[in-house]
Amino acid sequence: MSADVITLRPRGEQPSLQPMLSLTAPGMNCVNAVILERMQSEIPLIPALAGHLISGGGKRMRPMLTIAGAELCGYQGTRHHKLAAAVEFIHTATLLHDDVVDGSDLRRGKASANIVYGNPATVLVGDFLFSRSFELMVEDGSLRVLKILSNASAVIAEGEVDQLTAQRHIETSEERYLSIIGAKTAALFAAATRIAGVVAECGEANERALDEFGRNLGVAFQLVDDAIDYDSESGESGKDKGDDFREGKMTLPVILAYARGNAEERQFWQDAIAGFRTEDEDLAHAIALINKHDAVSATRDRARHYAQRAIDAIACFPASEARSAMAEAAEFAVARRY
After folding, report:
1. Which domains can be identified in the chain, with CATH numbers?
2. 58-104, pLDDT tens digit by residue?
3. Phi/psi of residue 107, each to 5°?
4. What is the pLDDT of residue 189?
5. Under 8 Å CB-to-CB from 247, ≥6 apart: which residues?
6. What own/partner pairs with CB < 8 Å and gap ≥ 24 does 256-262 have?
7. Is the pTM of this model over 0.85?
8. 18 Cβ partners below 8 Å, 6+ apart?
């Protein structure tokens, strides 16, 4: 066991995802081949719609975690390739369903699948990808892997429903918000990383460390996503600026700005989250209030805290290229602007 202490670099230094991309490139080539093969169907609309999103330039962070986790554990086999593809199919299916629920127009900088193909087809192809993911899990043959990924799928759905019920509720607490993103985002990050430890047979303690890395990284990742909605142009983020605001989503920047605001500001937030203040000038006012109370900066600070917890979780593994790449990926996740 290593007693290393790995700390986040100062804010001025820009981390890179490149070490993670380089580490996982051979494995991800195999994963992408599985994805391409398994998204095929005799029904032409299925690969067309799935390909619209899958080829849309996502970071593939979740399957990369499965590949990187296997490298960290010194795994020499190939089981994790299909499982990483299963992880990506689960993620893609949830994105397709999310865009229908949210009525999104953009995904990764281009028209979302529901806009191009319609809501019914988008939901059904999401179902198809979920089914494909479970086929891949069953082919692997491990009941433990099946339990981890199926549980994550259920938790993600619970998180999405919880977010839906919290929508337009101004009194949503920071605690509930963290519970929502822990379910809808962090659960799959945790499962994706943990299954690498299962196939590598690295032991329960190391499995838990991988789970903690993924879970904390997932929370940090979502915190930054929510900050970006009030912090970047849509050209950077790949979605319409202010989507969360117009949908009445209670994300951390809003929760903090509301808590720190005076009576007049709180009244604005109550009206905006209820759906009565959704014009461009209302969004501009919301951003001004969020900036006034440093709510984006505070959200990014919280993200850095969770990224550090992720990095701490894998300090028990010996120093290696994989450990360094995973640590820098956590830093990149919270420093990014898109």
Report:
1. 18-335 (1.10.600.10)
2. 779 999 999 999 999 999 999 999 999 999 999 999 999 998 988 87
3. -145, 120
4. 98
5. 102, 103, 167
6. 256/174, 256/290, 256/293, 256/295, 256/298, 256/299, 257/286, 257/289, 257/290, 257/292, 257/293, 257/295, 258/170, 260/293, 260/295, 261/289, 261/293
7. yes
8. none
